[in-house]
Amino acid sequence: MKRLGTALRLELTLQIRYRFLHAAVFSGVLWLALLLPMSDELRSVVSPYVIFGDLLIVGFFFVAGAVFFEKGERTLNAVVSTPLRFHEYLASKVIVLTGLSALLAVFITTVTHGVDYHLPLLLVGTTLGTVLMLLVGFLTVLPFRSISDWFMPAVIPIAVFNLPLLGYAGLWETPWLYPLPTYGPLLFLGAAFEQTTLTGWQIGYGLVYPILFTFGLSLVARRLFDRYLVARTGGS
């Protein structure tokens, strides 16, 4: 726990140094500029897409940017040579960035809707979605040495994990979208604004499947971390 606490403080410091917190605030302001001029009815329809887009930014792009900065400053070399364990290193990023995403979601929603939304559903959808996209972003960035090398290949996982938006919008209603774990969080976001009504099996699916998928991604992340970072830095 002491190592995790130290890792959390370091991660928060790095997020401030890299100005990701500033970027998050700027992103929130842009979403408010989009939502506030809308009517109440239209705002409720659009809000799940906005929150989903925001967690994509915080989860996928922020973690990718953080890892590239750490590679450039050789911070990861130091991490590999310290007693800090991988799960503590990754957990610090998950906790800080997921907390940031949740705060942004609550802030944006409260400013635009007051208290006329379901906070628990919003937090569940935001948390699960952010953790998923964060791990996907972390996995995609490990094999690459620079942002320019990573950016184009990164379009593929972004496109795949955003396909549930088509199902949610009714543009492509097919059960083949349910194996994508981002569908569950999206359903919770829709329910938070009363745009969808969750059935019992959807609640179970939306909770259990993303958690299991997250666990699987974390295992893959450890293997890729060892392969692309530990081995290259000579760590053990």
From TrEMBL:
Classification via Pfam families: FLQE3_permease
Keyword Transmembrane tagged: yes
InterPro entries: FLQE3_permease
The entry's keywords: Membrane, Transmembrane, Transmembrane helix
Transmembrane segments: 20-37, 49-69, 90-111, 117-142, 154-172, 203-221
Keyword Transmembrane helix attached: yes
Protein name: Uncharacterized protein
